[in-house]
Structures are given as C-alpha cells and as structure tokens.
Design a protein that fits this description.
Layout: H1 2-56, H2 61-83, H3 92-119, H4 136-179, H5 185-189
Length: 190
C-alpha cells in the first residue's frame, strides 16, 4: 500500500515540474515574441520615415503614391482570397506554400496602410522623428479612396460573374430536366 502511494506522489511531482517548465517556456515565448514585434515595428517605422519623403517627391507626388499603394492593397486581398481556401488531401509542402503566399498577401494588404500611417504625425510626441511628413495626409486620403473604389469594383465584378455562372448552371439543369436526364435517382426509378 505504501509503495503505491509513493509511486503516485512521484508521478504527481514529475507532472508538476513538467507543467512548470511548460508555463516558463510559454512566458519566455511571449516575452521574446513581444520584443520581436516591437523591434520590427520600430524598424518599419524608421524605414517608412526615411523613404516616404523621397516617394512623395517623385512625379505625381502623394496622389500617385496613394493610388499605387491602394491598388497593391486590393491585389493583396485578391491574392489572399484566391490562395487561402485549401483543398483537402494536399501534401504538407503545398499547405506550407499556401501559408507562405497567404502571409505575403497579408503583408501586401497591411503593409501600405502602416507605411502611410508611419508618415503621419504621432500623438504625444514632440521629437523631430515624429513630425508630419508633408504630403502623407494627401497620400493616405488617396490610398483610402483608391482601395475602397477598386475593391468595390472588384467585388461587384466577382459577384456578377458568380451570378452569371449560377444562371448558366440553372439553365443547364433545366435543359437536362426537359430531356428527362436531370431528375434525381428516386424520380428516375418511379
């Protein structure tokens, strides 16, 4: 009786140590992940603040920059929606490739937005590195309008194509039923 109790206590102790190590690893991952996110955010902001004045100064200025970034966002959304739905029964390599392409499409969707937001004046920051970059507000406004209009147009086009395809399928089934071939198995057996 004593040996059974000692064995159970040892197993509980080992399980407790394993749980403690697991919790420590999770906390460590959270701390490292948060540090990486802050580092990447800072590097992205610095990159944007150094390159935005050059891009705004190109021919077409903030209008062209906003329009190009808006189109990039819409293309990222389209690509992400095309790649994301997975077909069951594919290999791990294909799933990994689709995940990588989806991540690239997400970067194309959110990258331009955060790029332009980095050029706007920061709140509660009086440093020169937080100053407003001239032309960024106009570029942001054009970005929002372009992404909205092009996105709405693509949405309407895709919806129209889907409705046409559904109408064609209905006509096909209607023609088959007229010939007596479009019926269900139960209706054919009667």
């Amino acid at each position: 009786m004593q040996t059974q109790a000692d064995g159970t206590a040892g197993a509980d102790r080992r399980r407790g140590v394993r749980d403690g190590v697991g919790i420590a690893v999770v906390i460590l991952c959270l701390v490292v992940g948060t540090g990486l996110i802050l580092l990447l955010t800072g590097l992205w902001k610095r990159f944007a603040r150094e390159t935005l004045p050059t891009l705004v100064g190109l021919p077409g200025g903030p209008w062209a920059l906003g329009a190009v970034l808006g189109v990039i966002t819409v293309l990222g959304v389209i690509g992400g929606l095309r790649v994301t739905p997975g077909v069951p029964g594919v290999t791990r390599l294909v799933r990994g490739f689709r995940s990588a392409v989806t991540a690239i499409c997400c970067a194309a969707v959110f990258g331009p937005l955060f790029y332009l937001l980095s050029g706007l004046r920061a709140r509660n920051c009086r440093s020169v590195s937080c100053a407003y970059i001239p032309g960024t507000g106009t570029a942001f406004l054009v970005y929002v309008v372009t992404a909205g209009l092009v996105g709405w147009s693509v949405h309407r086009w895709v919806g129209t194509r889907a409705a046409e395809q559904l109408a064609r399928e209905r006509m096909r089934v209607r023609r088959l039923r007229k010939k007596g071939r479009g019926k269900s198995r139960a209706a054919r057996q009667r």
